[in-house]
Design goal:
The structure is a single chain. By secondary structure, this protein is mainly alpha-helical. It has 24 helices and 5 strands. It has a 5-stranded mixed β-sheet. Helix 21 links the parallel strand 1 and strand 2.
Length: about 525
């Protein structure tokens, strides 16, 4: 038996405890998923699932395939949309504990590593909504676990499994390239570079490239719209955080109380003799972090790299506490610290409070104002919550305007959306009002086109009047979208009714194109 392990009973053994923690994380989201509404990207992903392709302006194709599968099997209810992310979050908790176990940790190390993930607001945010980010964390940590097995056992053929997982990760989100670059440099800087002399890592890379290649060909065929999207997004929405703010964001997103755990993990990976097999992963974290700082990547892009640091840190703390009775206090202190921080930060990651109660709570801490994610973030709520509000009111406003049209105008009326969130919300929530599907030129909706309606009359939301004046002879503002919790760059969007088109919408479609 491992010197740090406790007896592994059927219900209280290390694997059982890890399963309980993973299930707790799952249940936490299944209990709270209805507190707020749909997140903006969830609407978009649902619509992508209705327009399957090898690529999209903002993401590769995997999220659309998943959305399509969810719709076919479970439908598009909020529960159906949120179930898979919650399961992925539980799997990340389980994987982190398995990493600690694979590194030689006992019950304490496995439990502390899993608790650190549960207590980190960023993972609770990501596994609470249906976006590419939760799958990004899952795929990357499946890759890391595979690497640990390779480095510990020398089974080089597992590079093929790594390539499969990395390829799927790339088809989910291209920011995996950041992590892949960090890993490659980490290999070159450590003794694990020896494996590059063999064929298996290169075979794994080829597998990943083959899986990723349809997306590359899609980009080539469509004149690389994602490059335009990245360029515009950085100019319009992204904030450029200086290095100290980027690192402060990491501390806050991971739960400040967990800082000693992942720092101990980084030290274990880079310096501890028992962590020599993890040198590549330690350097990979440092390189990826520096790349994201230099390239002004989003503050949460580094999130997939921390579970291995939590696992390694938990093992290091367990070892230190086991060396001397004088250090036995480290175990309860570490658990208590992580749990206390996790409870304090829980409302930032999980919707356990009403919006009004959350605002009162956050006013005392104001942490989401210290390191904002986007330009135009709401004052009242952090971005991941603010983007869950206002959609019902928006659709109701459009429905009221649509109902006021004459019976002769409605069959010709087209709904023009100025953003992908507006279009997705109308398409998902507008059915009960009898609304036609919205179209627009923002991101993927541009490629999906104006539809079959004549467009003799148009109801538009969030499109500048100057653009509408180029397309229609008459444009009248009839409403303004308002919600006290909505993002400030979405609230105040005008609703227009336009008539007497100057040109057909198909001929003027290019004027609505916007990738950001």
């Amino acid at each position: 038996m491992h010197r740090y392990a406790l007896p592994r009973g059927k219900f209280l053994g290390v694997r059982a405890v890890l399963l309980y923690l993973a299930l707790f994380n799952l249940l936490l989201h299944l209990i709270t998923y209805r507190q707020y509404g749909y997140f903006i990207d969830e609407f978009h992903n649902i619509d992508m699932g209705k327009h399957l392709a090898w690529g999209y302006v903002d993401n590769p194709c995997l999220i659309a395939l998943i959305a399509c599968g969810v719709r076919v099997v479970l439908g598009n209810s909020l529960f159906a949309v949120r179930l898979l992310p919650a399961i992925c979050g539980a799997l990340v908790v389980w994987l982190t504990g398995r990493m600690a176990l694979r590194l030689g940790g006992g019950l304490f190390a496995v439990a502390l590593a899993a608790l650190a993930v549960i207590a980190a607001p960023i993972y609770q945010i990501l596994c609470g909504i249906f976006t590419v980010n939760v799958f990004d964390v899952l795929f990357w940590n499946l890759c890391v676990y595979t690497l640990i097995v390779i480095f510990k056992t020398g089974r080089q053929r597992l590079w093929l499994v790594f390539g499969l997982l990395a390829g799927l990760g790339l088809e989910n989100k291209i920011s995996v390239l950041y992590l892949g670059f960090g890993l490659f440099i980490g290999l070159l800087l450590t003794r694990q570079r020896q494996c590059l002399a063999g064929p298996w890592p290169w075979a794994g890379a080829l597998v990943a490239l083959l899986i990723f290649s349809p997306y590359v060909f899609w980009q080539l065929r469509h004149d690389w719209p994602t490059l335009e999207f990245i360029r515009n997004t950085r100019a319009v929405r992204h904030l450029r955080h200086p290095p100290h703010m980027f690192m402060l964001a990491q501390v806050l997103l991971l739960n400040p109380a967990s800082l000693p755990v992942w720092l101990a993990g980084l030290d274990y990976c880079l310096r501890d003799k028992d962590g020599k097999d993890l040198r590549t992963l330690g350097w990979s974290y440092l390189v990826t972090c520096m790349v994201l700082i230099v390239l002004h990547g989003k503050i949460y892009y580094l999130a997939p790299t921390y579970p291995i640091l939590f696992a390694a840190g938990a093992v290091a703390i367990e070892k230190a506490a086991g060396r001397s009775r004088d250090l036995a206090w480290l175990r309860p202190a570490a658990v208590a610290l992580v749990l206390a921080g996790g409870i304090a930060f829980l409302p930032y990651g999980v919707a356990v409070l009403s919006p009004a109660a959350f605002i009162r709570y956050s006013d005392a801490l104001k942490l989401h104002r210290i390191v904002p994610v986007h330009r135009g973030d709401t004052i009242a709520l952090p971005v991941h919550y603010a983007n869950m509000f206002g959609w019902d009111k928006l659709v109701e406003s459009v429905a009221e305007t649509y109902a006021e049209l004459t019976p002769e105008e409605r069959p010709d009326c087209i709904l023009l959306a100025g953003s992908y969130g507006t279009a997705g919300a109308i398409n998902h929530l507008g059915g009960k009002y009898g609304l036609p599907e919205a179209v627009g030129g923002h991101n993927n909706y541009y490629f999906w086109g104006p539809g079959d309606r004549s467009g003799k009359v148009a109801i538009s939301v969030g499109i500048p009047k100057s653009v509408l004046d180029e397309l229609f002879a008459e444009t009248e503002q009839v409403a303004v979208i308002q919600d006290e919790y909505l993002m400030v760059n979405v609230a105040g969007a005008p609703v227009y009714v336009s008539r007497k088109p100057k040109i057909s919408l198909k001929d003027g479609w290019e004027r609505l194109r916007r990738f950001d």
